[in-house]
């Protein structure tokens, strides 16, 4: 059982506390370490990951979600002490025993070696790319759901409220998995189950908003294309009708020739034009 401590540990004190455990290992949880060191859970998570990357400790998952933390540097010291106490090869140690000791030592040193520079660079680049993709997906998802939520309101105020509700649901869907995982690791099963249930509801709302956005825009695009197709069919029909009417005209003279003929006949029709008041009063 881990006792609580009134004052906070420094980073050096916390690492020394881990390395000083009996047999070089301890089975505990992040919450227990946070209470022991006077830290919060996030700081404990970060320090354990940092020390594991630096090779100070090796952390594995034990029973009931607890962590088994092994001090690799303490094992190195124990191995060196044991190796120094062995007799020399000429004093009776066999070749097999010497080879076994060297293999164990090399394996122990490998646990404490930090990752090489190319692997660190590759992991860093991959993390940056994945983080950028995740941020882009989250940004566009928020915009889509906010837009669709705004279209459901009849007034400007209702649209703003629905858009804000959609954004809040999306943010909650992003945060709840981490919260549920932390609660489950702390053995708060009921709270973790509630968190997963809320996440299921929020992800369904987000999916419905996304489907609604896609359906609405696809329907508008399909309707616009159908309207353009119908207008094109009407124009083609009119062109065909005009061509038919043009083919039925027997007059072969050009427009200029017909206009000249009308100009020549106009003086002879002046009397009739005046008598009929411009062809308005025509008597039979």
Give the topology, please.
Blueprint: H1 11-19, E1 25-28, H2 30-37, H3 41-54, E2 57-61, E3 67-71, H4 72-84, H5 95-112, H6 117-151, H7 156-185, H8 189-247, H9 255-265, H10 270-275
Antiparallel strand pairs: 1-3, 2-3
Helix pairs in contact: 2-3, 4-5, 6-7, 6-8, 7-8
List keywords for this structure.
single chain; 284 residues; mainly alpha; 10 helices; rod-shaped
Radius of gyration (Å): 43 Å
Main beta-sheet annotation: 3 strands, antiparallel
Given the C-alpha coordinates, what overall shape results? rod-shaped
Structural class: mainly alpha
Strand content: under 5%
Describe the overall structure.
The relative contact order is 0.05. The protein has 3 domains: 11-112, Winged helix-like DNA-binding domain superfamily/Winged helix DNA-binding domain (Arc Repressor Mutant, subunit A); 122-219, no CATH class; 252-284, no CATH class. The chain has 284 residues and is mainly alpha-helical. The protein has helices at 11-19, 30-37, 41-54, 72-84, 95-112, 117-151, 156-185, 189-247, 255-265, 270-275; strands spanning 25-28, 57-61, 67-71. It has a 3-stranded antiparallel beta sheet. 71% of the residues lie in helices and 5% in strands. Helix 4 packs antiparallel against helix 5 (95-112) and helix 7 packs antiparallel against helix 8.
